[in-house]
Amino acid sequence: MTTTTARPEIDQEHWQQRLEELAAKHEVPGATLAVLRLGPDGPDGDELVEAATGVLNKSTGVEATPDSVFQIGSITKVWTATLVMQLVDEGLLDLDTPLVEVLPGLQLADEEVARQVTMRHLLNHTSGIDGDVFTDTGRGDDTLERYVAALTDVAQNHPLGATFSYCNSGFSLAGRVVEVLTGKTWDAALRERVIEPLGLTSTSTLPEEAILHRVAVGHIKPEEDQESHVAPVWMLPRSLGPAGLVNATARDVTAFARMHLSEGRAPDGTAVLSPSSTAAMQAHSTDLPDRFSLGDSWGLGWIRFDWQGERLYGHDGTTFGQNAFLRVLPSQGIAVAMLTNGGQPRDLFADLYSEVFTELAGIRVAESLEPPTEAPEVELSRYVGTYERSSITTEVFERDGGLVMRVIPTGSIAEESGATVEELALHPIEQGLFATRAPESETWMAVVFYTLDNGAEYLHYGVRANPRKV
Questions:
Q1: Contacts of 223 (CB under 8 A, 6+ apart)
Q2: Which of 149, 161, 203, 233 could form a disulfide with 248 if both were Cys (CB 3.0 to 4.6 A apart)?
Q3: 72: burial class by Cβ within 10 Å (0-12, 13-18, 19+)?
Q4: If phi over 0 gives left and psi between -120 and 50 gives alpha, with beta otherwise, what is residue 351?
Q5: Rg over CA atoms, the chain
Q6: What is the pLDDT of residues 55-80, one digit of tens each?
Q7: What pLDDT digit, counting tens, does each position of 237-260 carry?
Q8: Model pTM greater than 0.85?
Q9: CATH code that applies to domain 13-367
Q10: Residue ranges of domains in the chain
């Protein structure tokens, strides 16, 4: 990491004002921001600027403050990956040893995958286990054990290691490995091994812990012309803990990132993770079929980003009406966390993070894919069909000379969250690559059609591989 010796202080009042203005522009009810920049001579020289705007709950009007706790969603996965890498440091786990050596009774829909899947497959999302399985196995301490037992009924989305597909299920499985090797619940292991050593007093994993703080609730907007309202469900089932149940302030999220910026050390010098494991988490592990919508590659837990030739890592999180964003620029010791509870948070992220990183580091958020002014000639009929995985059915069809993608949420989470069917126009970029965006969003997302070596056809959208129904 390199730092400069003469640099202006981060202007808290300016970023407070910009957060307020941009959150209002993008109809985000409440948001908090934390910007951390490491000092050139150790923790005493660190700069931390915080801001907050709006309300935590439109029904109660409770104001958002820097001390407010939000759900950080899938940023949790990096915390779970940190736990896993601690076990690697201790010699209790090998990333490339089949998991059946730790979980002898592991049963999956594909018996060969059950025999061969490794922790590396889980951390870089290449296991092929269908990822959006939100089975509620209760609030008891055996919830992950029961969840893993139920994976025997979960379809294999793609062959082991054949492609990338974002996998919540794999992180619940990883959390169960943590439990077996530590003899503690995932929640207790995370608290004792990460949360407490870092002094994160506002971070928790259970609702009865979160309620002791100033807590945000999510807001959803089922229809375009409706006002957003409080989401009917607050939290995912406990069985999804290792994939997305950490609650924290933006300050605590940057404190976690600080440890990763500091070769695994807490501010007091405590070694939370070894330098080698810290580096391995940030290093390239697998590429993404869609290099345009999020990052260009994945590490072990971390998403990797290329912004104008600068390498960043980070993660996003999405739960019921809440979205979280973390980006880390190691070359300049900068970490930025933003937590939100509704509206158009990705548009807010694109605007605000571009300003923050331009001001502090001279770089901006990578430009999103956009359709060209003149649409290229591409063959459309080859992509028409139904693509299906757990929780989502996607129908692609032709209409008025173009392609339309109908996204149909299914399963218990769709029912609980109030998710609705969405139709998105696909704008061609080149053969196999299209751009789309939701009606009220400014941010474009890529849709990629591709074929595996075994001839199976997939639609890749929202960092998930959706297999085509035969």
A1: 420
A2: 203
A3: buried
A4: alpha
A5: 21
A6: 999 999 999 999 999 999 999 999 99
A7: 999 999 999 999 999 999 999 999
A8: yes
A9: 3.40.710.10
A10: 13-367, 381-467
